[in-house]
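Obj: model holo form, ligand = zinc ion.
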Amino acid sequence: MIRFTMLSAGSGGNAILIATDTARILIDSGVSFKQLTARAAAVGESIEGLDAVFVTHEHRDHVLGLGTLARKLGVPVYMTPGTRDCLPGSVGRLPRVEVFEAGEAVQVDGAVVRSFSVSHDAADPVSYVVEAGGAKLGLAADLGHPSHLVRSRLAGCHGLILESNHCPDMLRRGSYPPMVQQRIRGRQGHLSNDAMSALLAALVHDALQVVVLTHISEENNTHELAYDTAAQVVAGRPVEVHVAWQDRPTRIFEIRA
Ligand SMILES: [Zn+2]
Ligand SMILES: [Zn+2]
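Output (holo structure tokens):
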């Protein structure tokens, strides 16, 4: 079984807390240590006793609280060499850095964290599938394009965390300057509701239990729109769909093999 909660989700900060029977893992640490601690406590969890922190990429909304967290807890931080080399200076010294190449799998106390490259405007971005006791949780966020590699790595997951960043119409009509719009919708930008829908349609299967939508744009999307788009894809199946918030944690989800 895998339990997980999205402590924060969106351009203001991302962090996913994952607990298996034997390991506690954080993916990204894009909010302050204080926020992480408070949000974990709000759902009856704790970030004390983390076994590992995995970083997807060096953007501020994924590493803001990383330095403080790593120094306070002495927890090892796993990332690709390109991410390590491009971390913002504000992260500061990390006591224990473990580097892996995109595509490699890392064992953490009985859990396996498999990485895969994603297309995003960062140095060496990856996403992850966490596996424990046969249960598989897959993440695909901060990517402009769901490649064949992404689809094949996420196949068979019992839980999916998928980016549903923007509604293409809202983005086009919104206030973002053309350059920024282009970046967001580009192949190294962020997944739209439509792209998420196509990805989810390709991934849905009988053992899929939970889909959590993440990195929702506050300006160019609504939770309702993202939710409805995903709910349509899994209609008639016993799949829970949730949308993760920026300003508070989700409840704890459980998935089983
Ligand atoms: Zn991000
Ligand atoms: Zn990013």
